[in-house]
């Protein structure tokens, strides 16, 4: 078992989901339609739940600290999430496009991880796959409904898509351990996930009036996987841990 | 979450004189037999109007009630609290959705109700016009305001209108989680460090007044109230609910070593009733009429949410789909 | 100036602090159609009415109903139907059967194709409608008459809903894994919160301290 490589993989999975779940939870009570408010909150809870599952693996299987300590006390420079998930929510079009770009990648990641040679991760991925299936159905249904509707909606979504694609490509930043993880059968690697992801999102976008900017000429925003973040992430962490840190040693 | 203080005045009692006496007698006999009224049944106008008002106020209280606790959704300490608070606030939004549907079966559209809320034309529970300064305030709402709401809602679930009862059945199940979660989070504070205990006590001090007035002023029993009680629209009096709440929760607050900011508060063993300082009903009236610490913010936020969502709703509109009121 | 809130999320909404003019009434267009949702709690159990959602079409209604009506308890499937597609009888009194007191004439003239209709019963006022079965008919009226023959033994029946099968959006067999983990989300169940031990410990500690003084 290649512990450093596994930790590298699990941290990026866990941190992505924690940060995105946190961002999406900000919509609770403020969503565009009551029912959508509820659906979006469920998915945010799932994401936080998934991050907890991966932090738990890091703690129990790989000797890292407990999940609360990992999530609430590390500085931004020690977070491995892609910058895509840390950006502030903006308007609903922005949150929806991020959700669409992220979850279509996430499901491929989980499909791959459910076949992992590292059993603990395969188990978790297999169990949680059904939840992400709903997330993808949700994202794709919304995109196809809104993506060919009013001029305003199309314009909004298109501009969010243009803005977010470079960040989304940053999700596939290669790990230092990429070759080993693939060789050991831990997962299929970022390049393979990205290829499949492009295929799937193009299929959905084809049903809409939205245009995907050329991914080959779009420079990905990299660095998130190794601690380079926008200032938004530290602000998010400070807010998230405001109570947790106000009395060290307290149980909440 | 919803308390008393629902406003039952307005509709002129004489309205009943205009109703068909045979149908009215059948309607009253059905309720007296313990049967529920369903949306397509004949019902007196007063019944319909009062139910819409009550269920609508209840729904508004849920959607506005999501805001004071929602203030802490991004700051809940640790995974356990973070997940629970997310689910709890989500439930409140879910309850609003269920209740708006129940009110819609009586003929008022949800969008109309939301517009009336935002324009200050219809009320919601006063308690949500108070701010949540600390994490402990959010915990106090989860525990004690939800506890009060359960007392109220369990009473209301014995009411006569089928769709409202069905919604309340589900709501009460979920509130059981809110109450336990709220209690748990307060127990951790009260049995925790000095900082935590102080935070908990200060929150109780701040919220005691609003909690006591949550159940609404003592009912002045009029013919009108008697009719609504006979029709099982209003089930328990505000004072009964307040007494029941005190009975159940004062001991639970005391056992945590917390104090309640009311020198007069004690149970009179002779009468079995709690004696307390009368809540400040002047403040209650002032706040319910718009002049509370957070009224303006609550409505502004709700309105902002509606306006920010407008393009989404516009884009999704299906010109062929026809709005009809939900069935049940 | 913007409204200053204790909620950091609200501060990010940049709401002007000035008093606002009343919001204009929503246009009729802002009202989505409503859809009724039915939930199957476990394999083989009948689909039972859960409630309504507002949605622009059945696909979105499914997304909404899934979280509003099946997030908290076990579920193996959902049916969605637009409210306008449900035909219903009047309500009978409890203990009675609406089949005994309500008849409809079959439409004359037009012959329509034979197709399946789903039949739902409400057994008691205040309770939810449940699916009892299917009939093949050429109209709602005929479907009701056939339901009367086929299901009237299932008394009491205070109310009947009839829906054309083709108007029901049914969740797919292969999507059942979307509900697999519902039961594991213990953090939203009352049973997950047990604090008696903690309270007992605390009280003991308080007593010990008091007796020291």
Structural write-up:
The complex is a heterotrimer of chains A (252), B (328) and C (213). With 252 residues, chain A is mostly helical. Chain A has a single domain (3-240), classed as Ferritin. Chain A has ten helices and no strands. Chain A has helices spanning 3-25, 34-60, 67-73, 83-86, 92-113, 119-146, 151-169, 178-183, 190-205, 231-240. In chain A, helix 1 (3-25) runs antiparallel to helix 2 (34-60) and helix 5 (92-113) packs across helix 9 (190-205). Chain A starts with a helix and ends in a 12-residue tail after the last helix. The relative contact order of chain A is 0.15. Chain B is mainly α and 328 residues long. Helix content of chain B is 61%, strand content 2%. Chain B contains eleven helices and two strands; from the N terminus they run H-H-H-H-H-H-H-H-H-E-E-H-H. Chain B has helices at residues 21-32, 45-70, 78-104, 110-118, 135-156, 162-190, 194-214, 223-230, 238-254, 281-288, 295-316, and strands spanning 266-268, 273-275. Chain B has a two-stranded antiparallel sheet. The model of chain B has no long low-confidence stretch (mean pLDDT 92). Chain C is of the alpha+beta class and 213 residues long. Chain C has helices at residues 8-11, 58-70, 98-101, 140-151, 196-212, and strands at 33-40, 48-55, 77-82, 86-88, 115-122, 130-137, 159-164, 169-170. Chain C has a four-stranded antiparallel β-sheet with strand order 2-1-3-8, covered by helices on one side. In chain C, a hairpin with a 7-residue loop joins strand 1 (33-40) and strand 2 (48-55). The mean pLDDT of chain C is 92. Chains B and C meet through helix 3, helix 4, helix 6 and helix 11 of B and helix 1, strand 1, strand 2 and helix 5 of C.
